[in-house]
Amino acid sequence: MCALIRKQTNVSMAGSCTWLALGILSSVSIFGSVVGCPASEMKLADSRRLPVTWTLDVVSPQPDTANQELVLPGEVRAWYTAPIHSRVAGYVKMWFKDIGARVNTGDVLAEVETPELDQQLERAKHELTKDEAVEALAELTAKRWAALRKLKAVSFEDADEKMGAYKVALAKIVVAKAKVGRLEAFRSFKKIRAPFNGIVTQRKIDVGAFVHAAPFHPTALFEVADIHEMRIYVDVPQPFAAQIHPGMTAALELIQYPDRAFNAVVATTSQSIAKHSRTLLVQLQCKNEDGLLLPGSYVEVRFDLPPNENILLVPTSALVFRDAGSEVAVVGNDMRVTLKRIRIGRDLGTSMEIVSGLSVTDRVVRDPPDSIKDGDIVRTIGPAVACNAHRFRNSRGWLYGKPHRSRLKLVRSRLRRGHVIVSRFEFPLRTLCGRSISRRQ
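Above: the chain's sequence. Below: its structure in token form.
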């Protein structure tokens, strides 16, 4: 009996050693064949490999039903803005309105002393008086010569000359009056006035400063802005240009008023895409009765855009990045994989916008392996099974899913029973060796 037990024990140990030796030799042969093959042969073998069967979760692309919120930086400008220049040269006699002052149309902002202009006006008036006297004498002379011509006391030629001198005198009076009127108009510019109702936003003169007449004085003396209503300008990127139209509403958010939003309306657009930025200039209007909106302020403009029917959403994990670009693995009716090239939009975190390349009827692999290729076979599982995949086996009894302690135990037991673990799959040892190996009992 003891000899029989010893014999069975030796046979069992011999069988175990045989299995261990075969496993080591198979692993060494597989590793040596992979290492010894050139890169070109490995790539050719990989391209000619048989389709692999995967057990993966698939999802359907979902249309983007949520409204899109587009937030863009903008600039607040006054309804009217007018830089005020001096029309005449002279010295500032006095300014009457400082920055922040509210003014009405015609209010005097400053007064300029113009002694040279005053002298020119006085001279023009005296020249007008002189021309009027010459005109009166020429008129009297012309009448006398006309009477003498009737009596044939003078020639017709001399009488015509006197009448022509009278008409020249009349013309000189018209020119002198125009010159006086021009100088008087310039003299009225001594007082710089507000062009419309608003506030003074800039004052760049002081008493005694010399100012040149425009356009020789490039710097404005004052700047007046009408802020009863504001204009907001924002550059909209070209992909969203078609969704912006007059009449749309938008919310304005300013840093100084974090708890308040101002309502604005799109008034018009430039109807042109800027070459340097590829954006559409959009003008909005916003009432400013309380005067909280200030010209030049930075503002965030929030547009509530309708959903884009052409955009689909897929999980971010579904994207496959290859040399050709972004792709997704789509499972067809024959349960085979087709890699489709797509054009992605915005990254929303857990999901990605797909602009083109997919339809709502496609079945997209949620988390494709990096080695997945066209023609691979996919066994789909539902979302409920996918989240607990480590508790299930497929028809061959192999295990997929998240690592688990029970799986580690199963792997150890299968190593002892003649299985080799390659990547995330388990293969029977006889598959790798190319022949069936029977275990001695």
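The CA atoms of residues 105 and 300 lie 33 Å apart.
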